[in-house]
């Protein structure tokens, strides 16, 4: 995505990232 990641999204990605990775 071209949209810069915000701190809130970083927190969401960290949670979902654990499941995906």
Give a brief description.
This protein is mainly alpha-helical and 21 residues long.
Helix content: 55-70%
- Find the count of extended strands (DSSP E, 2+ residues): 0
Rg measurement, Å: 9 Å
Mean pLDDT comes to: 72
Shape annotation: elongated
3D structure, described in words:
67% of the residues lie in helices and 0% in strands. It contains one helix and no strands. The radius of gyration is 9 Å and the shape is elongated.
Per-chain topology:
Layout: H1 7-20
Keywords:
21 residues; 1 helix
